[in-house]
């Protein structure tokens, strides 16, 4: 039986990294511990997002990861990412996940093809209608090569499964365009460092990379951002968060988690490699800063 979580109670979702061992295989023992860390911080868990390197995993690995985490029966809700460019395959993935005790989907823009408002409306509507759960759309032009048009959001705003939007373009103007197109849609920041600004603009929360390394601290960061009573948050967190994006995400956060002892290995799947990060002083300094933050 699926726990009836109120998704609106969770203002922080951690885009969980996929732990690999030194041979490049999924490290399920470490995955279990990472889930426990997020549970303890009361953070929602997103599986197989871009930070989770979902596209570098085989279908069997994707299925095994979701099944493994479901079997753990975490006390926080689970969101599963849907991403690619083949609509039929993505619908099949949604149908498969519908049979598991998950609670939401993250629906990414179709990759590479760069469809316009009509094409994206069809893409998202097809996935929304296939879903048995509330869905968060994902605007990430830096990875998909195209933004979700505000017209698409407007077209979809009355779909019963459209719950939220992850906005990761880094543009407050884009955020405002989405708010105007669908005033009742919950919008989450997809950029850790911009959370204080997006909170002032009406964001409901954050889908985070930093929370992998700093679960409790990032939870408090989001809480304070949403309260609007801590004006120096950006100054306190910006340099630390920026260190996690010195090279392609999720390389720095996995290297940091290895240094922290959270990961047995900093391994990633090609074409990403931890060898890109040749200098770790920056993330070590950031770690010391955030762990002493209060």
From TrEMBL:
EC number: 4.3.3.7
Pathway recorded for this protein: Amino-acid biosynthesis; L-lysine biosynthesis via DAP pathway; (S)-tetrahydrodipicolinate from L-aspartate: step 3/4
Subcellular location: Cytoplasm
Principal location listed in the UniProt entry: cytoplasm
Site (Part of a proton relay during catalysis): 50, 112
A Pfam family the protein falls into: DHDPS
InterPro entries per UniProt: Aldolase_TIM, DapA, DapA-like, Schiff_base-form_aldolases_AS, Schiff_base-form_aldolases_CS
GO biological process: diaminopimelate biosynthetic process; lysine biosynthetic process via diaminopimelate
A molecular function GO annotation: 4-hydroxy-tetrahydrodipicolinate synthase activity
Signal peptide: none
Sites where the protein binds pyruvate: 51, 207
Catalytic activity: L-aspartate 4-semialdehyde + pyruvate = (2S,4S)-4-hydroxy-2,3,4,5-tetrahydrodipicolinate + H2O + H(+)
Domain of life: Bacteria
Active-site residue numbers: 138 (proton donor/acceptor), 166 (schiff-base intermediate with substrate)
SMART domains in the record: DHDPS
GO cellular component terms, semicolon-separated: cytosol
Keywords: Amino-acid biosynthesis, Cytoplasm, Diaminopimelate biosynthesis, Lyase, Lysine biosynthesis, Schiff base
SUPFAM superfamilies recorded: Aldolase
Similarity comment text for this entry: Belongs to the DapA family.
Function field: Catalyzes the condensation of (S)-aspartate-beta-semialdehyde [(S)-ASA] and pyruvate to 4-hydroxy-tetrahydrodipicolinate (HTPA).
Subunit-level organization: Homotetramer; dimer of dimers.
Protein name as catalogued: 4-hydroxy-tetrahydrodipicolinate synthase
Organism per entry: Pseudoalteromonas distincta
Taxonomic classification: Bacteria, Pseudomonadati, Pseudomonadota, Gammaproteobacteria, Alteromonadales
């Amino acid at each position: 039986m699926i726990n009836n979580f109120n998704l609106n109670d969770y203002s922080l979702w951690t885009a969980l990294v996929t732990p690999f061992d030194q041979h490049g295989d999924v490290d399920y023992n470490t995955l279990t511990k990472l889930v426990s860390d997020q549970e303890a911080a009361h953070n929602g868990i997103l599986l197989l997002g871009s930070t989770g390197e979902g596209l570098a995993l085989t279908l069997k690995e994707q299925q095994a990861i979701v099944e493994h985490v479901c079997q753990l029966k975490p006390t926080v809700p689970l969101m599963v990412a849907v991403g690619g460019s083949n609509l039929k395959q993505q619908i099949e993935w949604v149908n498969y996940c519908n049979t598991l005790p998950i609670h939401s989907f993250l629906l990414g823009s179709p990759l590479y093809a760069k469809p316009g408002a009509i094409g994206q409306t069809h893409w998202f509507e097809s996935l929304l209608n296939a879903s048995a759960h509330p869905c968060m759309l994902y605007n990430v032009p830096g990875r998909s090569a195209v933004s979700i048009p505000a017209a698409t959001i407007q077209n979809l705003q009355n779909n019963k499964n459209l719950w939220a939007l992850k906005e990761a373009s880094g543009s407050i103007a884009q955020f405002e365009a989405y708010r105007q197109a669908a005033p009742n849609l919950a919008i989450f920041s997809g950029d850790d460092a911009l959370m204080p600004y997006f909170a002032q603009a009406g964001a409901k929360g954050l889908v985070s990379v930093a929370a992998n390394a700093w679960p409790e601290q990032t939870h408090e960061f989001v809480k304070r951002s949403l309260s609007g009573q801590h004006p120096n948050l950006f100054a306190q967190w910006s340099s630390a968060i920026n260190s996690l994006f010195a090279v392609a995400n999720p390389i720095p956060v996995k290297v940091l988690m290895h240094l922290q002892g959270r990961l047995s290995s900093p391994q990633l799947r090609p074409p990403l490699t931890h060898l890109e990060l040749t200098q770790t002083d920056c993330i070590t300094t950031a770690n010391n800063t955030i762990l002493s933050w209060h």
